[in-house]
Amino acid sequence: MKNLLPKSIFILSFFLLIGCKKNETAKVAKSPIAKNSIEYASGLSIVKHEGFSVVTVTNPWPNANKNFTYILKEKEAKVPDSLQKYTTIQVPLQSVVVTSTTNIPYLEMLDVEDKLVGFPHTDYISSEKTRILIDKGAVKNVGQNEKLNIEQLIELSPDLIVTFGVDNNNPMLDNLTKSGLNVMIQADWMEQSPLGKAEWIKLYGALFGKEDKAKELFDKIVTSYNQAKKLVANKPATTTVLYGSMYEDVWYVAKGNSWVAQFMKDAQSNYLWADLKGTGSQGLSFEKVLDKAKTANVWIASGSFLTLAELQKANPHYSEFDAFKNKSIYTLESKFGATGGTIYYELSPSRPDLVLKDYIKIFHPDLLPSYEFTFASKLN
To answer: What single DSSP character describes residue 374?
Structure first.
C-alpha cells in the first residue's frame, strides 16, 4: 500500500464471555489472564485466555457496520462452544502472507520475517532484511491486494493471510475464504493515534507466540514517544505549518483529528487546519489554501520531491507561498528502498516516535541538535 474504546471493547469481551455455557463461562471468566492487552488502539482488542486469545477488529474501514472476531488457538487448547462460530487460527503461525508494507516492520521487529511467504507487489517493500528474502525467492509476489492470485496462494498454503478492506465490497475476501484459506482483516491504517497504530504489533505478537516481546518493543516506543513530547511540552507552538500539496486540481489538507495533525500537535506547532474537525483529509482549492497559508513558516509537502525546482515544476504557483520563498519546505516521502518503495509509508506507522522526532527537529531544531532525520528531507 503506497499512499496515507476501551470501555466498549471491555463490554464486547464481556458479552462474548456471558454467551458461553454455564461451565464454560465459569472457566473462561475466572481466568486470571483474561483481559484486553490493548491500551491505545481503538480498533483492536486482544483478550487472552488459557490456551487461546479472542481478537476483535472494530472499525475495519470508514463507516463500517461490522466487526471481525478471531480465535487464536494454541495446540491442544479447548475453545468454548460459544466461540466456535468465529474463525479459528492455529498459533503460533509457521507461515503468513501480508498485504500492506506497514506489516513488514512488525514481522522484523519480532524476528519472524522468515515466516513471510507471500506479498502483493513485492517491489513496494523497502526493508533490506525482507528484500534479501525476496531476492532469494522465499517471498513470492502474489498479485495485488484486491486481485490476489488465489491459485498461487492455494499452492503456498500459508497458515494465514492478513489483509485489509477499504469498504464492505471486496469479493476477493470471500473468494479466499471459499478456497479454504484462513483470512484476517486488520485495520491499523484506520487508527488516528500515532501510538494506536504502533500498538498493532501486539497482534503479530499474539499470532507468532511472542506477546511478551511485542509488549516490550511497544513499551519502548511509548517511552521514546513520550520523552520526545516532554522535550517540547513547555515550548510555544509559534511555527505555523502548511501540510500537503496539490493532487490534480485538489489540495488535500489533513483534518484536525487525523494522524498527521496529532503529530503536529505533539511536536508543538501551529498547524493551520488543526480546528478542522474529523479524521482523514478534506479537499480544498489552491486559492483557499493560499489564502490561509501564504505566510506559513514551514511547509511539509506530500510527495517525493527532492528540490524546490521539482516542486515548482509540478505547479508554478507553489512559489507564491512564503515557505517556498524562504526555502523552508520539507517532505517525509523522498527516501526509497532499493526497488522504489517509500520508506515513510512502510516504517512510520510502527515507529511514531521517530516521526515525532523528525517534526520536532523541523519546528524546534535547537532541542535536537545532534539528531539526524529518519524520514524528513529539506528541499534544496
So the answer is: S
d(CA 109, CA 205): 10
Distance between CA atoms of 109 and 112, rounded to whole angstroms? 8
Contact status, residue 21 vs residue 82, Cβ threshold 8 Å: yes
Q: Are 355 and 330 in contact (CB under 8 A)?
A: no
- Give residue 166's pLDDT band: very low, low, confident or very high (50, 70, 90): confident
Cα–Cα distance, 252 to 283 (Å, whole number): 4
Say if CB 303 and CB 332 are below 8 A apart.
no
Predicted confidence (pLDDT) at residue 114 exceeds the cutoff of 60: yes
- CA 64 – CA 277 distance, rounded (Å): 20
pLDDT above 90 (res 184): yes
Cα 6 to Cα 23: distance, rounded to the nearest angstrom: 27
| SS3 assignment, position 70 | strand
**H or E stretch at 293:** helix 286-293
224 CB-contact burial (10 Å; exposed 0-12 / middle 13-18 / buried 19+): middle
pLDDT at 124 over 50: yes
Q: What is the pTM of this model?
A: 0.88
Please choose, from the candidates 144, 352, 96, 136, the residue with its C-alpha nearest in 3D space to the C-alpha of residue 229.
Answer: 352
Helix (H) or strand (E) holding 252: strand 250-254
State the DSSP string of 136-197: TTSSEE-EETTEE-HHHHHHH--SEEEE--SSS--HHHHHHHHTT--EEE--GGG--SHHHH
Which whole-number Å values give the CA distances from 276 to 257, 258, 279, 289, in the listed order?
Answer: 8, 10, 9, 13
Integer Cα distance of 25 and 302 in angstroms: 51
Rounded to whole angstroms, the Cα distance separating 5 from 193 reads 13
- What gap in Å lies between CA 274 and CA 257, rounded to an integer? 8
C-alpha cell at 287: 486559492
131 pLDDT tier (thresholds 50, 70, 90): very high
Count CB-CB contacts under 10 A for residue 86. Answer: 16
Return all residues near 84 (Cβ < 8 A) that are at least 6 apart: none
Using CA atoms, how far apart are residues 34 and 359, in angstroms rounded to an integer? 39
